[in-house]
Amino acid sequence: MASEEEKTTNSTGAGAPTSTKTAPAGPAGPAAGSSGAGTSATGISGAGTSGTGASAAGASAAGASLARGSKGEQPATRAWATRLVVVGIVLAALNLRPAITSLGALLEEVRDGLGMSGTLAGLLTSVPPLCFAVFGSLAPRFARRFGPPAVVCAGMVAIATGLLIRPFLGGTAGFLAASALALMGIAVSNVLMPVIVKRWFPDRVGSMTGLYSMALALGTSLAAAVTVPVTDALGGSWRTGLAVWATIAVVAVVPWIPLVRHRAAGEAGAEHVPAAVRRQDEALRITHSRTAWALACFFGLQATAAYITMGWMPQIFRDAGVPAGEAGVLLAVTMAMGVPLAFVIPRVATRLPHQGPVVAALGACGLAGYAGLYFAPAGGAWAWALLCGISNCAFPLALTMVGMRAKSSAGVAKLSAFAQSTGYLISIPGPLLVGVLYQHSGGWGLPIALMAGLMVPQIAVGIVAGRDRTVEDEVAARAAAARPGA
Known about the structure:
mainly alpha; about 0% strand; globular
């Protein structure tokens, strides 16, 4: 990051690289003196006009001293802060799904332990996308007030607290309330992860989004795979088996604390945003962008496919004669495909001028997998699981496009909140509709046809979202066209 900042500084003509740290003070920062050397030059010029040469020499010496001190200290600050951010991103991502997948692994035991009805248990599985939509929309407001690191830190605290207390509150209402607390922490962190990547790593959006997505996929599959064995090892209590996941969330709080306590260090990696872009983002009406709507629909449709796959794929295989144990392994394989591909796909996507080909390739894998499930679910079960797993990697692609379709972290915050909140609302009816069709038709023909049918608009809106443009430029063009006489 230091080299990128030095390039930015040198291109502006300021003499000292340390000028980059005075800019975040606001639009007036650069005008007040964007660097130590620049200030010195201004002082000399002023002295020549007023005849106070001694003052000029003093100002020049002070400016040079400030430049030397900053030059030694600020790169060091950036270095340790950047390392903390990388660790924080990975640990936070690991915690964004275990609250959901660990519950799925023990849902039957939780239902029996709490006396929960089947209808209420079904409602519980629909709570995550609803919470993501509602609480995720608040993340940009919190980030503007407290800063993204502070909000993510609070999110990790909420996850840890919710996971720790929900098994022990003694009733269904308490369990739901504590689950909602954990999901609130997940929701705001979901939205702000792309913002933090854009702010700290504007030149490495693909690789950092890949790292974050890979850690998220790892946490998802890990919780699904080991929750039951860990529960058995700890005595067989579902309460302990769920509460143990709070440990990882507590660890995830740690790297964010120094960034919150030393806010100057937390801002050290902020990207340099031109004043014109800053003004665009402040006045940005995200709903006036076609790309924003396309991203929201793409996000919602890929989330629909993912929730349907996670919720219903084992049952599809079991109804086709696949043993229950093998059906569970097939689901684990589908989810595990996201671990390596979540790192590769964002890196590939950021090197392309248009992400449409990647969208189309992932969609084609999904259509092929659904066709296999329709015609020969048991005969090629492993192939269909792999294809559906590849298709589900549309999630890291969506996150990558969120980071690429805005000019600054402020724009990414608005776009991420809109795309994820709207998208998760879109995803809520899908799994429920599949269940209704399965129950009333007595088979999987209609549900699979629905899944394949939803993949077609997913590809279409993904191609629109993948075009090389930004939401700021789209909104500005629309505003210009709407002016009288335009």
